[in-house]
Design brief:
The chain is an alpha/beta fold and about 400 residues long. It folds into 3 domains: about 10-185, Aconitase, domain 3 (2-Layer Sandwich); about 190-285, no CATH class; about 290-405, 2-Layer Sandwich (Aconitase, domain 3), CATH 3.30.499. About 40% of the residues lie in helices and about 15% in strands. It has 14 helices and 13 strands. It has helices at about 10-15, 25-40, 55-75, 100-115, 145-155, 165-175, 200-215, 235-250, 280-290, 305-315, 330-340, 345-350, 380-390, 395-405, and strands spanning about 45, 50, 80-85, 175, 190-195, 220-225, 255, 275-280, 295-305, 325-330, 355, 370-375, 390-395. The strands form 4 sheets. Strands 11-10-9-12-13 form a 5-stranded parallel β-sheet, sandwiched between helices. A 4-stranded parallel β-sheet has the order 7-6-5-8, covered by helices on one side. Helix 2 (about 25-40) crosses helix 6 (about 165-175).
């Protein structure tokens, strides 16, 4: 694959593709150029950072581990800041959580292969909570669907939803193809969603996102009438909205009138765009709920929880004790901040666990005897069924914490 006449390459890029920087870089360039050609890119674009998915051994298996080790052995090294999506376990407390030893060994080997390639073991789907916030208009190559949505929509950076191998290739090559959401014309809204339903909680936002993702598929929705005045932390609401739409559809960019940075650009909302109206969230809630009363595990923090979300859980649980397993998943750095603030100790005193490095979707929860899940995350509710075969209950943070305290789901 040495000729790439249809994709204009710089002299340096041609040399990399010819193998002058070694076999690992050549392989990375072959992947980047092949994808650029498939998607009709005219040239490549340098990226400022890369988020690599395909970290959990549950998803990779031995074949994936072998692939990573071979690339690392060839001398593959990231040439731009690159960091990892969640793994299949908490690296420090896996034993306490009941993760089998053979899984833990294989998971550690995956992370070792990535760190040899110079990829930081950040192990989070919310890199923007640990200081990795690309600037407006900057080009990045991120891969976890909710992080991609956040980078594009909330920060106004530019990324497509990279696959595991393509993100790793972008990290090693330092560039990706200039196609899809890297280009101005593909960032315009493909439909206008008029929100007429009252939205007053993170759960409502998730139900709205579950409906919108199904309607829009891989389009670019523009929301009008979405009131976020109920929350002091609108970024958390936008995180939940993007995660839900990425899971129920394949939305990688959305705009919210008066809120997101590109929504005000005159060309973003074409005059002839189709209009959809959402009057009611009931169908969204129904899509995310099963007929379930007894709960094995309550999981919050999908995408990973912020320090403020952890504080909210600690306040709710003060002086009480859970009857079922409660996980709040977060980035290792955020857990450390919460530890210093005394938040982790408060949650643990109530019997909950603040779990770093992983999440309920990529951890092997089916090996832990978990059959039923309650969550405030539309993304977790959707993926827990398809990825882990769990029965799910979806509702507000308060409903989920009540379920943790009683072991049963109450209310709608």
């Amino acid at each position: 694959m040495s000729h790439a006449s249809d994709v204009r390459l710089t002299e340096e890029e041609r040399a990399m593709l010819a193998g002058e920087a070694g076999p690992a870089v050549r392989k990375a360039m072959e992947i980047v150029v092949a994808l650029a050609r498939i998607y009709g890119a005219r040239h490549l674009v340098p990226v400022e950072s890369v988020q690599v998915a395909g970290v959990s051994y549950k998803n990779l298996g031995d074949a994936g581990l072998q692939f990573l080790r071979e690339w690392a052995d060839e001398g593959a090294r990231a040439r731009v800041p690159a960091f990892l999506n969640p793994a299949g376990m908490d690296l420090q407390r896996w034993k306490e959580l009941g993760i089998p030893e053979d899984f833990a060994r294989a998971q550690a080997a995956v992370i070792e292969a990535y760190t040899r390639m110079g990829i930081a073991p950040s192990l989070t789907c919310t890199p923007y909570y640990i200081g990795l916030r690309p600037a407006f208009g900057s080009h990045v190559a991120w891969s976890e669907s909710s992080a991609v949505s956040f980078a594009n929509s909330v920060l106004g950076a530019r990324t497509n939803r990279e696959g595991g191998p393509s993100a790793l290739a972008a990290a090693i090559a330092g560039r990706t193809g200039a196609y899809s959401l890297h280009l101005d014309e593909n960032r315009r809204a493909t439909c206008l969603i008029e929100v007429r339903a009252p939205v007053r909680s993170i759960a409502d936002i998730g139900a709205l996102g579950a409906l919108a993702g199904e309607l829009v598929r891989d389009g670019v929705p523009y929301f009008r009438g979405l009131d976020l005045s109920w929350t002091r932390r609108p970024e958390e609401a936008l995180k939940a909205l993007g995660a839900a739409m990425a899971a129920s559809g394949a939305v990688a960019l959305y705009h919210v009138e008066g809120v997101t940075p590109e929504a005000g650009l005159p060309e973003i909302l074409p005059a002839d765009v189709r209009v959809l109206t959402i009057h009611d969230l009931t169908a969204g809630y129904q899509k995310l709920n099963g007929p379930l009363e007894e709960i094995d595990l309550v999981s919050l923090g999908c995408p990973h929880a912020s320090l403020e979300e952890l504080g909210e859980v600690a306040r709710f649980l003060a002086g009480r004790h859970v009857r079922t397993r409660l996980w709040i998943t977060t980035a290792r750095q955020v857990r450390e901040q919460a530890e210093r603030a005394g938040i982790v100790a408060q949650i643990e005193a109530a019997g909950g666990q603040v779990v770093a490095d992983t999440c309920v979707i990529v951890a092997p929860v089916e090996l832990l005897g978990v059959r039923s899940l309650a969550t405030n995350s539309a993304k977790a509710a959707l993926y827990a069924r398809s990825h882990s075969g769990l029965e799910t209950r979806f509702g507000t943070t308060e409903q989920c914490l009540e379920a943790a305290l009683t072991g049963r789901w109450r209310g709608p």
